[in-house]
Amino acid sequence: MLGAGFADGFAAPSVLIAGIAQRLPLVVFDENGTPVRSGGPESIDVSIYRNDAVVATATVNRHASGIPTPYYPLTFTAPEAGEYAARAAFSARSLKFKVATRDTVKLVQIGDALRPVVTPTTADARGVNPVCTRSPKPCPFHEVTLTDAIARKKPIVLAVSTPGFCQTAICGPVLELLVDLAPTLGRFQIVHAEVYVEPNKKSSGAPKTTDTITTYGLDYEPSLYVADADAIVRSRLDFSWDSAELKSALALVS
Questions:
Q1: Which of 87, 108, 228, 230 has a CA 20 to 30 Å removed from the CA of 28?
Q2: Terminal alpha carbon distance of the chain
Q3: pTM score > 0.85 for this model?
Q4: Pairing of strands 43-50, 82-88
Q5: Residue 146: helix, strand or coil by DSSP?
């Protein structure tokens, strides 16, 4: 059966907005509700319904390079806000999801400018401890703040994730994809921002999130933004991506 690898608007607030192309990572589950990690289809045929009428169809290829769980990234532009359903040709069961209006979703969209944030660095953690939860050692993307990177007028990659405390087992792998590619990405300034201020601190409530999470309107992770020298976002990846999608996103900025 078809499952949502994104916030569908039911279990969590919708991240999808009408009128702009949106990326929906889909996952194939077996009859026990377990994600199919091997032996899944190389592509799936998907139809999108609105009020029982087909509004879009697509063949979506499988992505799994460098990550544990394969997914199928569907790009879809909803004509209006409301409830929709996705149905794969291999199953009669529909995946329902909600699409919102732009004024209700605080996320940065493709074509928007990056929002400056004085992100923690190895020189100034700004109260974030640890500055990077990657193990066994921090990633190399904490040398410059996002605000300073924007001022330098060079292309930027902003990765938001907490590999040490991720709830979906993907935040670490997608950061590693960027670490592996970094030696070939000299044209980019790469900034990694963590999700929690003090994830190891015991507290009765939810852990405090960083300024990046607040500024970018995120209530999920991971997320990645690729911006040009003018800090205009040319690509955004959310929830899950593999090395192929990452390379395609980076290739959009010269």
A1: 108
A2: 39
A3: yes
A4: antiparallel
A5: helix
Rounded distance between C-alpha atoms, residue 131 and residue 125, angstroms: 6
Q: One-letter amino acid identity for 69?
A: T
Q: How many angstroms separate the CA atoms of 160 and 146, rounded?
A: 12
DSSP-derived pairing of the beta strands 156-160 and 189-193? parallel
Instruction: Please choose, from the candidates 44, 57, 67, 125, the residue with its C-alpha nearest in 3D space to the C-alpha of residue 244.
Output: 67
Contact 110, 235 (CB under 8 A): yes
Q: According to CATH, what is the number of the domain 2-104?
A: 2.60.40.10
Token digits for 205?
Answer: 């409530």
Amino acid 167: pLDDT: 65
Segments making up each domain of the chain, as ranges? 2-104, 146-250
- C-alpha distances in Å from residue 146, one per residue of 57, 182, 231, 249: 38, 17, 10, 19
Per-residue model confidence as pLDDT tens digits over 152-208: 999 999 999 999 887 667 888 999 999 999 999 999 999 999 999 998 887 767 789
Q: Which of 196, 189, 187 is nearest to 225 (CA)?
A: 189
> Of all residues in the chain, what percent carry a pLDDT higher than 70?
99
Q: CA 240, 78, 98 angle in degrees (round to 5)?
A: 65
Rounded to the nearest angstrom, the gap between the alpha carbon of residue 136 and the centroid of all alpha carbons in its chain is: 23
CATH code for the structural domain at 146-250: 3.40.30.10
Token digits for 130? Answer: 């640890």
- pLDDT, tens digit, 9 for 90 and up, residues 68-83: 999 999 999 999 999 9
Q: Single out the residue of 185, 244, 222 nearest to residue 65, CA to CA.
A: 244
